[in-house]
Amino acid sequence: MTIYKQGQLQMIKTVFAATVAALLTFTASATAQFTYAPTSRDDVGLYLGGQFWQPDATGVLGAENTRVDFNLKKQQHIQYFIDVKHPVAALPHLRISTTQLDTSGQTTLTQQFGFSDKTFPVAATVNASFNVSYIDYTLYYALFDSDKFSFEVGFSARDLHGDVTVAGTTKISHDPCNDPNPAPNDPCIDLGNNAISSGTIKTDNINPMLFVATSVALPSTQLNVFAQADFSLLNDHRLSDYQLGFSYDLHKLMRVDLQVTLGYRVVNMAFENLNSLYTDLAFKGAFVGLIAHF
Is the whole model's pTM more than 0.85, yes or no? Predict the structure, then answer.
């Protein structure tokens, strides 16, 4: 057993106390760098925003082994969001945003195509209707937040709703005209063994996403460069939603803080066996928007 004299014990206590103080000082310094502690209440409040977006829709959809390009059309969309920021460092901020992706297209099949419980033959003309929307519920922290630079990170729950429908000519498995004993309620109508039919698959699902956003002010201007992105955290579906653009601050011209935004947005939506739906779609296009701070 090692025996320490009184002077040695006092020295050890002094060194230990100095070490603990240094560690606490370092921890407090590091925490201050990564904690949202606004110096003013200028950034605290309610943010309401919207975007006018007209993306091109490209890609394929269908079943696991048969995915078809339906020549989807460009559509106009209006997106909205609400963002609540508060001065409490320990609690995350809240952001809720909505996105609508509606488009349609048509193609002539070069191979047999199955969708939902319907089968469409070769050379049939089929129409696809893609009506999917989602709401992002995001909790995030502002790790850095100043007039010159901001960086935010958090998690989103992407709540998907909607459906995908494919309609066209299908083969009739039962032809009453060739039935020697037709039923009274099944009269012979010559349809050429074909009929117009449709299959629909629901897209209701919730996906966890990683949320990242940043903004950098350009010196001596009212312009900011911003970027925002959401990426799926599961391998079942490959989802991403990111945008890059400029914002112009109008708060010196009006009583309400306003920003005009202009940028480019890309949404990738690759479903892997979502209720037997498989997609590899991209929605890309420029947007213009407005953000109000109350």
Answer: no
